[in-house]
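This part of the workshop introduces the protein records we will be handling. As an example, a complete record with its sequence and its structure tokens follows.
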Amino acid sequence: MPLLFFTVPPQGSASVGVADSESIKHLQGEIVKRLEQPVLLSVYPHRVGRRSCVAVHLSDVHEKTLDILITVTGNTLWPAEQEYRSGIRWNICVPDATDMLWVLKEIDRVTCDTGCDL
């Protein structure tokens, strides 16, 4: 069984471990460094081979864009510093679909304009 990074009890709030929490904060910080709010978030479901994934396209009011591919692989892998600096697309691997949706929610949280409540 894959090691999940979001713990999601039935009818409870999700929680995340320290290491993955830091990785999520780092991802959010890298997004904020590149794009000015408000950011338009577009999500497109895909399959790469037999793996489920979502392509995330972010764009700001100055037409700067950022692309992220989140793929269900059964393990966890975050972009390396080099990928954040110069990658055409950031790739994130997650253990399962629940983790994919929670990562997507965290991306949405940081791209939301001031005053929006998630």
User: Anything to note?
Assistant: The mean pLDDT is 87. The chain has one domain: 18-111. The first helix runs from residue 18 to 34.
